[in-house]
Amino acid sequence: MANQKSDPVKAVRFFLMASSAAFLIAAGIAPDRGEMVTGLARILMSPAQLTKDYFAVGSVSGAFLNVSLVGFVCAAMACLPGAAVNGATIAAYFLTTGFSFWGINFLNIWPFFLGVMVHALVRGESFAKYVNLAMFSTALCPLASELLLRYPGSEEARGVTFAGAALMLAVGMLIGFLTPAMAAHSPNVHKGYDLYSAALPGVLLGLMAVAVLYKSLGRDVPAITATLGESFPAVVWTFCGIFFALCILGGFWLNGRSFQGYRDLLRDTGRKADFVSKYGPGLAIMNVGVYGLMIVAYYIAVGASFNGVTLGIIFCMVCFGAAGSHPGNIWPIMVGYVAFSLVFTQLLGGVFPVNAQAILVGLCFASGLAPIAGDFGWWAGILAGGCHYMLVTSIPAIHGGFSLYNGGFTALVVAVILVPQLETFCKTREQRLAEKKITSGKER
């Protein structure tokens, strides 16, 4: 098994199972491991409206246990016979597990999975075909917890009732049923320039749910308030350092004990890319490791608080390391966020510095605009990152703080605004290379 390019499905499945095991090991050795089970119970029985840090709501060990349980479920679905296992599977897995540090839990995922199962049944197709979309359908897990625990508007969770469970199941299954068709059409909206395609149904269905369940009935949407715990830099740095280093080593081994080909991956535009099929699982997993360490270094540099939310967004951001994002097309987005935050906070008196929690989360999903930087150039990436910074804090109001894909939808809005201008006035990387080839041919 010197080179797993010949068996990428087996390599990806093992990677997902091993990642789930890593979260479980972290739960077992966390400083507060004595609170693992009670912490998980508090997480399951707490509202999850943006933004709830599961380190604070439950415990560090309870949060890792929750992530592990969700991860094993997702990995098991990817192991179903006939499942389409590729770079998008790694993206869906890490996006779902990343949000399991703040918003997704082992209880609120099931209505959405069931809804996708019903979608497959109605279509007369195997659920295995929809595994990736099932994971992406969990964007509205906070709404499921809300309906279960405190709808129509109590301040505190009242506990599980039959009516609450029935409402959660009905609404969650409907959202899961509708998501696959909407997600399939999402790339037509942004033309492949927003990696977080599932954000379109994730936010629009949230908007519809809030309109039906609250606005149309004259009920107030619960106030969006963040619950953030203390920083645990030692826990986060240690876990991420070991995890991403192992990704690099594992990818190196899978790639025939070689870095060969990684330079080509770093030159990829990232648009409509599947690094697993294009470069092999070794280089894809290696990129997850390199990219992950880059993200951690960035958050250290800007002075982030390393709570559960920060750890979650590291994995949400790294999710497309096997399907479009890499250090070469991400750095302009990061620069754009830093530059625009400095302008707005230092010169214009703004209130969102680059290390504010909302902006740290925003950058995570601005990474979905990486194909813009890859296709149109670094300056376009900086502009895209800056536009995302300006918009991201305005989107939660439209879905009541119930959609986890808030930043991904912001990236979609930026792409819809920016890409037509770039296509009108600028040339893509492919067009520039073609012109350069023609020019060099004439010179000869």
Explain the layout of strands and helices.
Elements: H1 8-29, H2 36-44, H3 54-57, H4 60-78, H5 87-99, H6 110-123, H7 131-136, H8 141-149, H9 162-190, H10 199-213, H11 233-254, H12 262-266, H13 275-279, H14 281-301, H15 308-318, H16 327-347, H17 357-366, H18 370-376, H19 378-391, H20 396-399, H21 406-425, H22 429-443
Helix pairs in contact: 1-4, 2-4, 4-5, 5-15, 6-9, 8-9, 9-10, 10-21, 11-14, 14-15, 15-17, 16-18, 16-19, 17-19, 17-21, 18-19, 19-21
Written account of the structure:
This protein has 444 residues and is mainly alpha-helical. Helices cover 66% and strands 0% of the residues. It is built from 22 helices and no strands. It has helices spanning 8-29, 36-44, 54-57, 60-78, 87-99, 110-123, 131-136, 141-149, 162-190, 199-213, 233-254, 262-266, 275-279, 281-301, 308-318, 327-347, 357-366, 370-376, 378-391, 396-399, 406-425, 429-443. Helix 2 crosses helix 4 (60-78), helix 9 (162-190) packs across helix 10 and helix 15 packs parallel to helix 17. The termini are far apart. The model is unreliable at 1-5 (pLDDT under 50).
